Amino acid sequence: MRIVFLGPPGAGKGTQAETLSREKKLSHISSGNLLREAVENGTETGRKAQQHINKGQLVPDKIVVDIIRERIVKNDCKNGFILDGFPRTLSQAIVLDEMLKNLGNKLDMVFYFAISKESIVLRLSGRRICATCGANYHIKYVPSLEDGICDKCGGKLYQRTDDKLETVLERIKVYHEQTEDLINYYKKNGILKEIESESNVESITENILKVIDNASKSASFVNLGVV
Ligand code: AMP
C-alpha cells in the first residue's frame, strides 16, 4: 500500500505516520526528516536545504524529488510506504505519479489532515523534540515528566528552529500558497480521504485505520467479482 499524508505543518502527520507504519508494516518516509538528516550530516544537499528550512520556505523541488526518488526504491519500501510531507507542490505530485508509474505502481490513498490555523500555531509553538531519540513532546499537551528532559532516553529536549512563531506563520502561508492545491488534484484522482485532525491522537488513528480497512474490504469484493 502506498499512501500520502497531506496537510498543513503541525496537523499530526508525523505522529500518525509512525503509528500506521508499525500497524501496517509500511515504511515511514518523512521528507522533512530526510532533509534535516542531510543538514545534520553537512552534505551538499543539506547545506542547500538549510537556508530554506530555517526561513519556513519550501526547499526547491529538484532537491526534494531526488531524495525521495532514491528513498522509495529501497528494499524496505517493497511492502509499501507512507509519504509524510511529500509531495508539497503540484509539480512534486506529478513527478511522484511518474516515478511510481515507472516502478509499475501507483498511489492507493491520500489522507488530507484538516485542522484550523489556531490549532496549528498552538501545537507547533509548544512542540519539543528529543535531541537523542527524536521523540516528540508538547509543553502543554504531552509534557515530559522532567522539564526539558526526554522520558524515554534522558536526552535533552529542544525546539526546532522552524517551530518558532514567526517561522510557523510563514510555513502556514507557504502551505496555503503551494500545497493546498494538491487537495483538488487528489480529489480529482478519486483517492483523497479527509481526516478531521482536531481530535485526540488515538481517535484520529482509529479513523485512518477504518478508512484503510474499508478500502481493503471493497478491494477484496471487487477481486471476488461481488461488485
Ligand atoms: P516538515 O518536517 O515536513 O514540516 O518539513 C520541514 C521543512 O522541510 C519544510 O518547512 C520545508 O522547508 C522542508 N520540506 C519538507 N518537505 C518538503 C517538500 N516536499 N518540498 C519542499 N520542502 C520540503
From TrEMBL:
GO biological process: AMP salvage
Reaction catalysed by this enzyme: AMP + ATP = 2 ADP
Keyword Metal-binding: yes
EC identifiers of the protein: 2.7.4.3
Highest taxon of source: Bacteria
Binding site for ATP: 10-15, 127, 199
Ranges where the record places region NMP: 30-59
Metabolic or biological pathway, per its Swiss-Prot or TrEMBL entry: Purine metabolism; AMP biosynthesis via salvage pathway; AMP from ADP: step 1/1
Primary localization: cytoplasm
Residues that, per the record, bind AMP: 31, 36, 57-59, 85-88, 92, 160, 171
GO molecular function: AMP kinase activity; ATP binding; zinc ion binding
Pfam families from the UniProt entry: ADK, ADK_lid
Quaternary structure (record): Monomer.
UniProt remark on domains: Consists of three domains, a large central CORE domain and two small peripheral domains, NMPbind and LID, which undergo movements during catalysis. The LID domain closes over the site of phosphoryl transfer upon ATP binding. Assembling and dissambling the active center during each catalytic cycle provides an effective means to prevent ATP hydrolysis. Some bacteria have evolved a zinc-coordinating structure that stabilizes the LID domain.
Function description: Catalyzes the reversible transfer of the terminal phosphate group between ATP and AMP. Plays an important role in cellular energy homeostasis and in adenine nucleotide metabolism.
PANTHER family reported in the protein's UniProt record: NUCLEOTIDE KINASE
Name of the featured protein: Adenylate kinase
Gene for this chain: adk
